[in-house]
Amino acid sequence: MITLFLYTTECCHLCEQALDMLVNLKPTEPFALELIDIAESDQLIDQYGERIPVVQVAPDGHELGWPFDAGQALALLERAKEAL
After folding, report:
1. Three-state SS across 41-61?
2. What burial class does residue 55 get, using C-beta atoms within 10 Å of its C-beta: 0-12 exposed, 13-18 middle, 19+ buried?
3. pTM of the model
């Protein structure tokens, strides 16, 4: 199963929009979604602090930084599925 990581933090309205979009996607195959709060790591703050929300697909590491739409998220999932 493909896993999407959503890099986020509390009180981020853009992150809330991204989460709502991702949970309502209708991909051809199911996927897992894991939220990662960047506030728990100085390294993640340095890496994603100016870019959140960011979606990353495991295992290939491709990312989408905000702004992105449902079509782009579905394309990310499809690309990951093809790479399996």
Report:
1. CHHHHHHHCCCCCEEEEECCC
2. buried
3. 0.93
pLDDT in tens, the chain (84 residues): 899 999 999 999 999 999 999 999 999 889 999 999 999 999 999 999 999 999 999 878 899 999 999 999 999 999 888 877
Phi, psi of 63, rounded to the nearest 5 degrees: -130, 150
**Closest by alpha carbon to 58, among 22, 30, 33, 21?**
33
Q: Say how many residues make up the chain.
A: 84
- CB–CB of 28/1 below 8 Å? no
Using CB atoms within 10 Å of the CB of residue 76, give its burial: 0 to 12 exposed, 13 to 18 middle, 19+ buried.
Answer: buried
Plot region of 63 (φ>0 → left; ψ -120 to 50 → alpha; else → beta): beta
